[in-house]
Amino acid sequence: MTQSAPQPATRNNAPVTVGVGGAAESTDMVLNIGPQHPSTHGVLRLRLVLDGERVQSAEPVIGYMHRGAEKLFEARDYRQIVVLANRHDWLSAFSNELGVVLGVERMLGMEVPERAVWLRTLLAELNRALNHLMFLGSYPLELGGITPVFHAFREREELQSVMEELSGGRMHYMFNRVGGLKEDLPAGWLDRARAAVADVRSRMDVYDRLVLGNEIFRGRTRDVGVLSPEAVHAYGVSGPIARASGVDFDLRRDEPYLAYGELTDVLRVVTRSEGDCLARFEVLLDQTHNSLDLADACLDRLAHLPPGPVNQRLPKVLKAPEGATYTWTENPLGLNGYYLVSKGEKTPYRLKLRSASFNNIQALTELLPGTLVADMVAILGSLFFVVGDIDK
């Protein structure tokens, strides 16, 4: 005996659908990724509108970690602001310190000793390699490959040990000072640094073999999350992400600071034209190789420099003259800018930070629509951001 299907309810002779299984397939769904999620590298929230498995729109929601560093600068003198400046991108603490002290030195019209210039360049490149190694290990981890992160942390430990011996800090080095550096090198440090760089370089091929040679990794990243050069310019994207989209710009070459003007034969600006997740990883890997080469070149130069001071003597109360200046540096994650305004006091009237990750993460609104949810983590991780660098 067969049972007839139920008839739809009617009102005014018009059929009304009461409920049909699978009706939700045609309904947009709002999905929150974060603010606590393994792939967000911190407290970031992504508000996605999905049509099935396809992302229709994406909105990065930021501000969960905001510490008000820019306002705190106004209540600290020019020596004290360094402790605030190195914390927003905790993977690039030395580079963050550097930009602030360069800005103050420019306001003062101060020249730092040659030995300090070369030491700053060396430590900036070691810090760049430390930053990149973290992402070289964590990005494959987010795609399911656990092994590379163990290699990355071993190499990081080699470089961290020499940075810690020099500065006393493993994460926030606090080694820059207005006028130079905190102190000179410990005895024998140059040789230990050279050995650490050589050890790390000897094992860097593991990323070519283990990661780039993995067909699953290439399948998850090739032609995924393609960022056009036009979008790079529109959103102010910089650093490795911009260069992976064919934007050939690097401050170290195009507006040299520190000792980069004398390292043009070693400095290599790595670019790709594809603009996808794979290209961004390849740029990061090649930049790490080049940072190790630049570190070796700085070590060679320091070995031949005569002994001398690494800082300038400063007055007990340091005051910058009235005026304004803008300083920018090529940080590991991209362009960092420091707009300093002084009223002639011992504290900044205003110090505005332009952090690389803040602009870079905005490109997600362009990258994610039209992609699958499964590719969202691959795209998000390939932007190599630090959430503190977004929220400052």
Write the layout of secondary structure elements.
Layout: E1 9-11, E2 14-16, E3 29-33, E4 45-51, E5 54-61, H1 69-73, H2 81-85, H3 93-108, H4 114-142, H5 147-167, E6 176-177, E7 180-181, H6 189-202, H7 205-212, H8 215-221, H9 229-235, H10 240-243, H11 251-254, H12 277-304, E8 323-331, E9 334-342, E10 350-354, H13 356-362, H14 364-367, H15 373-381, H16 387-391
Antiparallel strand pairs: 1-2, 3-4, 4-5, 6-7, 8-9, 9-10
Helix pairs in contact: 3-4, 4-5, 4-12, 5-6, 6-12
Would you mind describing this structure in some detail?
The structure is a single chain. The protein has 392 residues and is an alpha+beta fold. The protein is 44% helix and 14% strand. The protein has 16 helices and ten strands. A three-stranded antiparallel sheet has the order 3-4-5. It has a three-stranded antiparallel sheet with strand order 8-9-10. Strands 1-2 form a two-stranded antiparallel sheet. Strand 9 and strand 10 form a beta hairpin. Helix 3 (93-108) runs antiparallel to helix 4 and helix 4 runs antiparallel to helix 12 (277-304). The protein is globular and about 65 Å long. The protein starts with 8 loop residues before the first strand and ends with a helix. Residues 16-24 have low confidence and may be disordered.
